[in-house]
Structures are given as structure tokens and as C-alpha cells.
Amino acid sequence: xxxxxxSITALVAALVRAYHHNEGAGxxxxxxxxxxxxxxxxxxxxxxxxxxxxxxxxxxxxxxxSNRTDAVRAALRELPxxxxxxxxxxxxxxxxxx
Length: 98
Fold this sequence. Notes:
This protein is mainly alpha-helical. The longest helix is centred in the C-terminal third of the chain and has 17 residues, at 81-97. It is built from five helices and no strands. The protein has helices at residues 8-23, 40-53, 56-64, 68-78, 81-97. The chain starts with 7 loop residues before the first helix and ends with a helix.
């Protein structure tokens, strides 16, 4: 890993946590500071790559929504790994603060 760059995994986790925080009700894990960990171009890059990696479904989501943010929000609801990331974070926090 390069010392001058952020880990893509860490940036994706921050993005998932930021979107989850913005969803509000029923939050598994609340991180009100996650959005501050992403620079604008990092967020745009990850969101675009995420939707591209979904192939046809990603293109459908982009077509169905008025902006990329809403398309990514819909993608997060469909994909299993964001829930896994959030559950791991919640489990870790619960262990640390119990």
C-alpha cells in the first residue's frame, strides 16, 4: 500500500457508513463523521466504479434515478456486502464499549 494514498477498502467502508448514516431510521451502525473521510473526487470515483461493476443493473439504477447519489443509495440496498461491513463495525464497537 502506498503511504500517500488512502486504502480503497477504507474509502469504500467510509462511503457505506456515510450512506447508512444518511438513511437514518433503523441504523445498524451510526457514523456521523464518515462523510468527512472522503474527498469529492474519491467519492465520485468509488460511486462510479461501484455502479459500473454492477453491469446492466448499475446502468438501470442510473437510468431510474435523477442523480448518481440516489442510484448508489439504491445499489447499497440491493448488495449484500454493505450490510456485512456495517454488521462487522457494529459488532466491533459493541465489543469495545461493553
